[in-house]
């Protein structure tokens, strides 16, 4: 009901504003913020080590609300290293946008709200932005043989960013 995962094998990680260096359009504003401020935490249950087949992994992400300049707080985002590995996102609470980008940088977004279920097709980078005023909580499911490719996003980013334009969350195209 809350998304909280507990029990043996659940691993918790935290990502602060410091850990999002380079991810926002306005890096100077990010660098001037409290570096210890929590951006999101993840509770993950991975029955098999990453890259090994034979299980479905799941993780709950608790993404805080807030802005960095005009850009909503976000997860780093990644491609799956295995090009044929999909993912499911199930929203527990809060509101946001799931940003999806194909390898040829076509970028679109789906509205996340309590109960919404989203299929991330194979070969699609995915990132979440919290556009609401409360934590955005969602559960992700992916096959254990999936590896994670963060580097492509670090180097080239997404084809669009979720920004506040005239008070409204808007997917704004971003030059490569
Ligand atoms: C999710 C993400 C989680 C955090 O469990 O890993 O939301 O986002 P980043 O890993 O991009 O920082 C998932 O997509 N797993 O595959
Ligand atoms: Zn993923």
Task: Give a nutshell description of this structure.
7% of the residues lie in helices and 47% in strands.
Strand ordering within the main sheet: 1-2-3-12-7-10
The SSE string, one letter per element, is EHEEEEEEEEEEEEHEE
What characteristic shape results from the CA principal axes? globular
User: How would you sum up the major sheet?
Assistant: 6 strands, antiparallel
Q: What is the gyration radius calculated from CA atoms?
A: 15 Å
Task: Output the structural class.
Answer: mainly beta
Topology, number of strands: 15
Distance between the termini: 39 Å
Residue windows where pLDDT falls under 50 for at least 5 positions: none
Q: What bound compounds does this protein have? A: 5-phospho-D-arabinohydroxamic acid, zinc ion
- Please tell me the overall pLDDT: 97
Tally of helical runs:
2
Helix content range:
under 10%
Which percent band covers the strand fraction?
over 45%
Account of the protein in words:
The chain has two helices and 15 strands. It has helices spanning 27-32, 151-156, and strands at 10-16, 38-45, 56-63, 67-68, 71-72, 79-80, 87-93, 96-102, 107-112, 117-120, 124-130, 136-143, 148-149, 160-165, 168-173. The mean pLDDT is 97. The strands form five sheets. A six-stranded antiparallel beta sheet has the order 1-2-3-12-7-10, with no helix packed on it. The protein is mostly beta strands. The N and C termini lie far apart (39 Å). The structure holds 5-phospho-D-arabinohydroxamic acid and zinc ion.
Please specify the SSE layout and strand pairing.
Blueprint: E1 10-16, H1 27-32, E2 38-45, E3 56-63, E4 67-68, E5 71-72, E6 79-80, E7 87-93, E8 96-102, E9 107-112, E10 117-120, E11 124-130, E12 136-143, E13 148-149, H2 151-156, E14 160-165, E15 168-173
Antiparallel strand pairs: 1-2, 2-3, 3-12, 4-5, 6-13, 7-10, 7-12, 8-9, 8-11, 14-15
The structure holds 5-phospho-D-arabinohydroxamic acid and zinc ion (ZN).
